[in-house]
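Regression check, zinc ion case 264:
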Amino acid sequence: MRSSMKRLAVVPVLLASGCIGTNFNLATQRQEYTITSTDKEVEAGRKLAAQVERELTLVTDEPVQERVRRIGQRLAAVCDRRELVYSFAVVKDDEVNAFSLPGGYVFVNEGLVKLAANDDELAAVLAHEIGHVTARHAVKRFESQLGAQLIQLASLAAARQGPAPQSVGVATQSMQLAYARQDELEADRLAVTYTTAAGFDSKAMLAFLDRMQEKDRTRSHYMPGRVVRPYYAMTHPFVPERRLAVKEALFGVADYLDYLNSPD
Ligand SMILES: [Zn+2]
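Current build output:
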């Protein structure tokens, strides 16, 4: 997982060729500039997915894979980028986590499948990951990372006499673990739309966020120097704000207590 995350740094190179254009993104409802065509995005996603599948072990229990595929495809059928071919796979890992790659490749850990109380909660998580794909969050992040890498190259060249600036590499690596706050909230709002359209109980996202937060409270704390595998709360922070965004998407307004509990 860590090494595959590290290798995601290769993606900007895969995505780089192409010219700048604009397209209207149905998910974000915005006109967006991009240097990445859908073909390029799918090609990069396919290569990364193959790498992930080489490095991680997939669950061999076919009914488990089938359940996640069935829920995922119901959501994919109603999402904003139906031209993509989505794939869903369960990774043999007890950590509660899920992630998506550009082009529609969604992975969910066995630990998360077990934590979800029912199909509706699982659908909420899968719809959130689909939301990252439809809003093209990863592509946008990689495109902006291209700029970051140019800065990194420039700083490496400037520091050629001195020691290599390790901190720059670590920063870009940790940037790859979590999407920005706005992206998370957008993926949650899209998850509410997609779960509703596919006939799932879209309130299940709130129940799952609570369950995940409870699990996080009981997990052993991070020890410096210890290898920590990415888990959901690490790749998906901002839980209080996410609850607020989900409630607003569900009910039009969040209640007073939510505002009290949310930062700023
Ligand atoms: Zn997310």
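Comparison notes: Residues 128, 132, 179, 184, 187, 236 surround zinc ion (CB under 6 Å). The chain has one domain: 2-261. No diff flagged against the previous build.
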